[in-house]
């Protein structure tokens, strides 16, 4: 995979609060013991690559721990983007009391994204 395919530009991020809320309230949801993935189709006029939003509650830990979660989730998305269907907004958050484990996140993110997308179809 080339370096260009592994970038994570702003166009691939969910940044608006309304988009986060819409995905969480109206989208499909799938979870395992570590993360929860919410998925919702992008608007027809905005179709394009799947975007990722990460939300980490303060109960997860201090700023260092929350930033580690964000880095691992973004890295998993960035490196496994070809395995995730295009045209959706994904919002990912850790489960309550989950233990930070990069290998579990890497394995679970594409699988849970697929499950969440199936649940909205």
Write the topology of this structure:
Blueprint: H1 17-26, E1 28-31, E2 35-41, E3 51-54, H2 63-79, E4 88-94, H3 102-120
Parallel strand pairs: 3-4
Antiparallel strand pairs: 1-2, 2-4
Helix pairs in contact: 2-3
Helix % is 25-40%
CATH architecture: 2-Layer Sandwich
Strand portion, in percent? 15-25%
Task: Give the total of beta strands.
Answer: 4
Show unreliable segments: none
Count structural domains.
1
In CATH, the topology is named Ribosomal Protein S5, domain 2
Main sheet: strand order: 1-2-4-3
Task: Give the class-level CATH name.
Answer: Alpha Beta
Mean pLDDT: 90
Distance between the termini: 30 Å
Order of helices and strands: HEEEHEH
Helix vs. strand class? alpha+beta
Whole-angstrom Rg: 13 Å
Characterize the main sheet. Answer: 4 strands, mixed
Our count of helices gives: 3
Shape summary? globular
